[in-house]
Specification:
The two termini are about 50 Å apart. The protein is about 40% helix and about 15% strand. With about 725 residues, the chain is of the alpha/beta class.
Length: about 725
């Protein structure tokens, strides 16, 4: 029995838990508050894609007479094959039956429906990713076929990473959701509620807290809360998370509180602690933090706690216990190593810093606390937490889920990882800013960083300035090149339809993206259309950006806002062409296609020179800063006299490299390299120069000499 039951409702990710409940449980541990956490989404998926459920699913569809399309009829005809293979496929995707990869990769093992129609040339597509990944891709298509059948014939709200999302998007009124919640439970609802009932009976909680990060979780959270109210009326319910934080700040509809007793906003630690005290030990003195409830039929907001929110150093290490970590499913949707990170493999999730250190992008909700209040965590505490999570979960992979990880903190985390000789793999979200020098990228790689994702947004300097992104296209090209040369994969978030964006700028942006892929300096990307949000600078001051918002009366959710752009351009028409071109660029093909070929309507010629990105990469890096820390990541060389000079032979993982330098320079270098190790006290470029010039003239001449440049390409970095 636990006092609190923390639930992530269906659906978020297949491959790894959404971290919110793990963060909260870790904090509650520090306050001695007992809790149990459940990822209801993965439990429903594992139940749904099982032999018995697939049998029932096909029977249900036949009874409902919903099998209409040719694709659905084909799948129904092959139902015995699906029933026979589904358990093995799920085991394989959970990493429990790797030998099945050879069976899956044959053409005869899995039944194939419409998702296989556009199947890549697998030998080509997976030449760089491997045999096992090829089987994962085929198994993913198999599951997507089954998903299509479910949507068409069983439950049209279903999706692997969302459920009934349409009902929850831009729902200024609660009416439609309310109406659907008073219809009989759907097929998926019934599965979810049965599993929920088991947890409620076993844990007997006093308070059930739903973390709702996305619109695609809201309907299920409401349906589960409704079930609790009907069958366990003594249990109180609360909702928090990304959706209420961004969308429910103007809540007025009291009917929501027929489902939830409380809704909390922003950082959840202190609100949940105070809410727990209120539920477990009721008193006339009700102290709450950023909490909605219903009193006398009216929505009431209470924020009378005087305690400040907890500092990030005090919230504890995320706790993944209770979650069924061996049940998560790794899938590969497309043959792209970077793109697969979001769906393949299980990642421990951590945050380097609360909020965003930049906090200026005009499309972003920078007025809200989760972005506005920036607070980094020390590198020592972060790496302590990494070690704790490795011990707890057995997983050494980490996804830092920052809005934008701070480069200086990334450097310190990398040094701390190297100092402790940890073997970890990690990736994060960044801004493509000039702080990411070639040397910093090499240091990050040495610490286990394998990938970064960042917002290029609109590849137009005019629009980047209007966005207040703080970068230029040239700078993005140089930074992504540094990451790529270091062996770190790069994903770019791309945007079209930003206010005042012209057709010419859209085509020019596509050309920039084409060149970035052609140069091989980004490996993955995703186009999304600009969405106007209520809490962004554009939403708060739309006239400054040449748009007219279509405002509605708000009684429920308030975030995405429809608008009219002064340009009058229909940006939606570019969606298919932009995404189709990107799909091909990510596969390394079609760079020679004229941009017009991606669109079925006339578009202008690009105004971008065909060598623009290539020319950006030819510009030299700035000179080493006097304050840059100099770090040696290699070992001690072997010394062999060569006449009046010395040959230093360095061994590394790739082989050996040699320097031939004067005896005096060799003596100095051999003495100073141990002082440059990550374990040693920091030594800056200016301090290194001063030390050198005690006995030798002209440090710059030595630093930029060919032997030192060889050393700088093999582990000597200035960060």
């Amino acid at each position: 029995m636990k006092d609190l039951l923390l639930i992530t409702p269906p659906f978020t990710q297949l491959n790894t838990p959404y971290p919110a409940t793990a963060y909260l449980k870790g904090f509650l541990n520090t306050r001695d508050i007992s809790s149990f956490q459940v990822d209801l989404g993965i439990e429903v998926i594992v139940e749904l894609f099982s032999k018995e459920q697939i049998r029932q699913l096909f029977a249900f569809a036949q009874t409902q007479q919903t099998i209409q399309s040719q694709n659905a009829r084909r799948m129904y005809a092959l139902r015995d094959v699906y029933i026979h293979t589904v358990d093995g496929v799920i085991d394989f995707l959970q990493g429990k039956n790797p030998s099945l990869a050879r069976q899956i990769s044959t053409e005869s093992y899995l039944p194939r429906a419409s998702r296989f129609d556009q199947l890549d040339d697998l030998d080509w597509a997976f030449g760089t990713m491997g045999y096992h990944d090829k089987a994962k891709h085929l198994a993913t298509l198999y599951l997507e076929d089954l998903s299509d059948f479910i949507v068409e014939c069983v439950d049209d709200k279903f999706g692997f990473s969302r459920y009934a999302e349409r009902l929850s998007r831009s729902t200024n009124s609660f009416d439609e959701l309310h109406d659907h919640l008073h219809l009989p439970p759907t097929y998926i609802d019934t599965l979810a509620l049965a599993i929920l009932d088991q947890h409620l009976r076993h844990q007997d909680p006093k308070l059930v807290c739903f973390s709702v990060p996305f619109p695609g979780n809201l309907y299920s959270a409401l349906r589960c809360a409704q079930f609790i109210k009907q069958h366990y009326p003594s249990i109180q319910t609360a909702m928090g998370g990304g959706f209420p934080n961004t969308e429910l700040r103007d809540l007025k509809d009291a009917r929501v509180f027929d489902f939830f007793d409380f809704i909390t906003l922003d950082d959840g630690e202190l609100p949940i602690e105070l809410l727990t005290a209120h539920v477990l030990h009721p008193s006339h003195q009700r102290i709450l933090k950023r909490t909605f409830l219903c009193e006398n039929g009216e929505v009431t907001y209470i924020n009378n706690a005087t305690q400040p929110d907890y500092k990030q150093a005090a919230v504890g290490t995320p706790d993944y216990s209770d979650l069924l970590l061996d049940q998560y499913i790794s899938v590969i949707e497309i043959a792209n190593p970077m793109h697969s990170l979001w769906s393949d493999g299980r990642w421990n999730k951590l945050t380097m810093a609360h909020g965003c250190y930049w906090g200026k992008c005009t499309f972003c909700d920078i007025s809200l606390d989760y972005i506005k209040l920036y607070e980094p965590i020390s590198a020592r505490i972060l790496v302590d937490r990494m070690e704790e999570l490795v011990a707890q979960t057995g997983e050494t992979g980490f996804h830092f889920v920052d809005e934008a990880a701070p480069p200086a903190l990334m450097r310190e985390v990398a040094l701390e990882i190297i100092r402790r000789k940890l073997t970890v793999t990690w990736w994060t979200n960044i801004r493509f800013e000039k702080s990411f020098t070639r040397d910093l990228c090499l240091l990050l790689k040495a610490s286990g960083c394998i990938a970064v994702s960042g917002g290029l947004e609109v590849a137009s300097d005019r629009l980047l300035a209007l966005i207040d992104k703080g970068v230029t296209v040239e700078q993005v090209a140089q930074v992504t090149n540094h990451f790529t040369e270091a062996g770190i994969l790069v994903h770019a978030y791309l945007m079209y339809g930003y206010p005042t964006q012209t057709v010419q700028e859209t085509i020019d942006s596509l050309e920039m993206v084409r060149q970035l892929f052609e140069q091989g300096i980004i490996q993955s990307g995703f186009w999304h259309q600009f969405a106007l949000t209520a809490h962004s600078p554009v939403g708060l001051q739309p006239a400054d950006f040449g748009i007219l918002p279509h405002l509605k009366t708000i009684t429920f959710a308030n975030n995405d806002i429809a608008f009219t752009d002064s340009t009058g351009i229909d940006h939606e028409q570019f969606s298919f062409g932009l995404k189709k071109s990107l799909f091909n660029y990510m596969h390394g093909v079609c760079f020679d296609f004229h941009l017009q070929e991606w669109f079925d309507f006339p578009v202008p010629q690009t105004s971008i020179p065909s060598d623009f990105i290539a020319s950006c990469l030819e510009k030299p890096e700035a000179a080493t800063r006097p304050t840059a820390r100099i770090v040696w990541l290699g070992g001690t060389p072997e010394c062999i006299p060569k006449g009046h000079k010395v040959q230093l032979t360095f061994q590394d993982n790739q082989g050996a490299f040699r320097l031939v330098i004067s005896q005096a320079h060799a003596d100095w270098l051999l003495a100073v390299l141990p002082r440059l190790s990550p374990e040693s006290a920091p030594l800056t470029f200016a301090q290194l120069k001063a030390d050198f010039e005690k006995t030798h003239p002209d440090f710059e001449l030595f630093w930029y000499s060919k032997p030192i440049q060889v050393l700088r390409g093999n582990g000597l970095v200035a960060v």
